[in-house]
């Protein structure tokens, strides 16, 4: 079969590799669609994992073979089923799982879908092998929905998980920084949960789309290097003056939207430290700041710890998906309450995966979600 093999930093090659062999209680799925995810982009661009690998984990396709002797499996699936795959599933029994920290579970950290080499998702290939421990995450795609919608279940799940980590009341005002595909999902899911969303982005075209996704207000963002520059601050306790990040006054829009109270929460869908510092100053006391895009290890960011301690502004993170939300995610996507079709702007054939990754890594004003299509794809 054809597959896109990662051979080193920014080195993706179209190669011929063996079709994966499956065993008992395993599925062989012909790939129809695989989304291009920032997680894989970072691995490809920075070489954070050793080659060779076949990436791609936002995958949907058709069941073409069921492992022998799998009577229980055969009762759930049949040849020809259109399915969305989930490459990480937790054990639901370990210490981390009992604390609902599924992404920290050792079973969850294993990748259960492969097209060959070290398992890495495998969606940038014509066929993938689905291992037994991730079968509970496989979702059948309704006849009226496309493969692309099925492939979007995984990223939507990650966003809904983060939304659920926020302690929000109906009517709360939430800032979503960045209106790329992830930010737009946040905007819509927060709006569906009853929040009032202020959407920010550097691109006016994305702000117009944010209004369609449910943002009540939009605000053109400042350039990151113009935010929160260090200034010399006078002492408040008789000590010598110190240099601290400047407190950027909230725009009139935030004053008006929150009745001068401050934001109830802010979601960072962009990996900008400056925007984090800015948003932290705009939170009300007891507000919450959610980091979603800061996935690069080893970086150091300066924050004022007193805002966390004295002002009780929670600093939260959320990573990857929550398996227990799968049914709800499927309902939201397949009912099109969250219409992910409006996020997909570019489709590439498998042979042009490298170009798809480049575009996703350097988005233009016209690009949002990028997907790679296989020969089995059909979409309404």
Any overview of this molecule?
- The protein is α/β, with parallel strands linked by helices.
- The chain has two domains: 2-140 and 339-373, Quinone Oxidoreductase, Chain A, domain 1 (Alpha-Beta Complex); 159-317, Rossmann fold (3-Layer(aba) Sandwich).
- Helix content is 27%, strand content 25%.
- Strands 3, 4, 5, 6, 7, 8, 17 and 18 form an eight-stranded mixed β-sheet that branches. A six-stranded parallel β-sheet has the order 11-10-9-14-15-16, sandwiched between helices.
- Strand 9, helix 7 (181-192) and strand 10 (196-201) form a beta-alpha-beta unit.
- Helix 6 crosses helix 7 (181-192) and helix 6 packs across helix 12 (326-334).
- The chain is globular.
- It starts with a strand and ends in a 7-residue tail after the last strand.
Instruction: Report the helical percentage.
Output: 25-40%
Total E-strand runs: 18
SSE-based structural type:
alpha/beta
* Morphology call: globular
Mean pLDDT, to the nearest integer, reads 90
Largest sheet geometry: 8 strands, mixed
Given this structure, which CATH class of the largest domain is correct?
Alpha Beta
CATH architectural type of the largest domain? Alpha-Beta Complex
Summed up, the helix count is 13
Straight-line N-to-C gap: 27 Å
């Amino acid at each position: 079969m054809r597959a896109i093999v990662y051979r080193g930093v920014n080195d993706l090659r179209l190669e011929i590799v063996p079709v994966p062999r499956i065993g008992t209680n395993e599925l062989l799925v012909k790939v129809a669609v695989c989304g291009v995810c920032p997680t894989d982009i970072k691995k490809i661009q920075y070489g954070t994992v050793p080659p060779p690998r076949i990436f791609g984990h936002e995958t949907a396709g058709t069941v073409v073979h069921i492992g022998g002797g799998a009577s229980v499996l055969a009762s759930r699936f049949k040849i020809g089923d259109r399915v969305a795959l989930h490459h990480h599933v937790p054990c639901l029994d370990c210490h981390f799982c009992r604390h609902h920290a599924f992404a920290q579970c050792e079973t969850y950290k294993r990748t259960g879908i492969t097209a060959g080499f070290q398992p890495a998702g495998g969606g940038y290939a014509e066929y993938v092998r689905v291992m037994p421990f991730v079968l509970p995450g496989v979702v059948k795609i309704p006849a009226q929905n496309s493969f692309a919608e099925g492939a979007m279940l995984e990223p939507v799940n990650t966003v809904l998980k983060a939304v659920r980590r926020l302690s929000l009341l109906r009517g709360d005002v939430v800032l979503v920084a960045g209106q790329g595909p992830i930010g737009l999902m946040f905007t819509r899911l927060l709006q569906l949960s009853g929040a009032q969303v202020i959407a920010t982005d550097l691109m006016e075209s994305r702000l117009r789309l944010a209004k369609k996704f449910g943002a009540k207000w939009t605000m053109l963002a400042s350039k990151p290097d113009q935010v929160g520059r260090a200034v010399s601050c006078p002492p408040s306790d008789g000590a010598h003056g110190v240099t601290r990040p400047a407190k950027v006054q909230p725009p009139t829009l935030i004053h008006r939207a929150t009745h001068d109270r401050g934001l109830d929460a802010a979601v960072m869908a962009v990996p900008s430290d400056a925007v984090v510092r800015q948003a932290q100053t705009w939170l009300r006391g007891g507000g919450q700041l959610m980091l979603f895009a800061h996935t690069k290890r080893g970086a150091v960011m300066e924050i004022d710890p007193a805002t966390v301690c004295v002002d009780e502004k929670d600093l939260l993170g959320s990573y990857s998906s929550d398996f227990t939300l799968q049914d709800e995610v499927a309902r939201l996507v397949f009912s099109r309450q969250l219409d992910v079709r409006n996020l997909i702007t570019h489709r590439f054939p498998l042979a042009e995966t490298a170009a798809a990754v480049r575009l996703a890594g350097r988005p233009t004003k016209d690009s949002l979600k990028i997907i790679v299509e296989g020969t089995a794809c059909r979409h309404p």
